[in-house]
Amino acid sequence: MSFATIVGFVASMARFVGSIAISTKNFWVFADAASFVDEVDGIDPGTIRLKRQNPEILEQLIINYNEVAAVLENTRFAEYLGR
Question: pTM for this structure?
Answer without folding.
Answer: 0.39
